[in-house]
Amino acid sequence: MGVRGSFLAACRRRMATWRKNRDKDGFSNSGYRVRQKDLGMIHKAAIAGDVNKLLESILLGLNDVNDRDKKNRTALHLACAHGRPGVVADLVARKCRLNLTDSENRTALIKAVQCQEAVCASILLEHGADPNVRDMYGNTALHYAIDNENISMAGKLLAYGADIEARSQGGHTSLLLAVNRKKEEMVAFLLKKKPDLTAIDNFGRTALILAARNGSTSVVYQLLQHNIDVFCQDISGWTAEDYAAASKFQATRLRNDIRGRARKA
C-alpha cells in the first residue's frame, strides 16, 4: 500500500470514528435548550434578565437561589448562558452556590465561557468560582475558551488559577487542544505561558505531531522555535516527520523544517 496509502486509510478510519463521536467532545452545542414547563419562576426570571421577578420568586418563597430545573440547571447557569450579568450579580450577592453543576457536570462559569459571556464569567471569577471543574467530557472552562479562540478569556482564567495542563477525555491539554483545532493565535498565546511541550494525548501525539498531522505549517514553525522533541512517536509509531511526509499540504517544506530541527538536536 505504501506510506501514503497507509496514511490515507488511517485517516479514513479516524474520520469514521470522528463522525461517530463528534458530539461527544462537548464542543458542538454551547447554549441551553429550555422548555418553559420545566422551569421554575426563578429560572424564567433569570433567562429574561428580570431581577425584580427573581426577587419576587424568592420573597414569596416559591424558589431558593439554588433551586434546579429538570436538567439540574440553577438560575445562575441560565443567567450565564443567556448573558444576564445583572441577574448573575444579584444571585452572587445573595450568596448562591457558584460551583453547582448541571446534568453535564458544567458549572455556571463553564457555561458563561462556553457561551462567550465575558462579563458573567468575570463576575464569577472575581467572587471565587472554581475554574478547574471538569464537565462530563473532561473539559474545563479553559478548554472552552480555547475552542472559541477567546484569548482574553483564556488569559483571565489563567490569571485566576486555571490549570493549563488540565486534560480533557481525549487527553488534550490546553496546548494540544489549540493545536488539534487549528487555533493558531491561541497556540501563540499559550506558548508564551510555557506549557508542557512533552504532553501527549490518548493516542500518544505531541503538539508537534498533531500540527504535522493536520498540515498546520504555521503551527509547526511556531513549535519548532521551542525546545520540542521532534523524534517522539505516537501509538502508531509515527513521528511528526512521518505525518509531514504523508500529507499533501506543503509536505516537502514541512518535512524539511522538521528534519532540519532534528539535525540540530
UniProtKB/TrEMBL annotation:
Record's keyword terms, sorted: ANK repeat
Renumbered ranges of ANK repeats = 71-103, 104-136, 137-169, 170-202, 203-235
Q: Per UniProt, what is one Pfam family of this protein?
A: Ank_2
The answer to whether keyword NADP applies is no
The answer to whether the entry has keyword Protein biosynthesis is no
The domain of life is: Eukaryota
Q: Which PANTHER family match?
A: ANKYRIN REPEAT DOMAIN 36-RELATED, ANKYRIN REPEAT DOMAIN-CONTAINING PROTEIN 62
Recorded protein name is Uncharacterized protein DKFZp459F0427
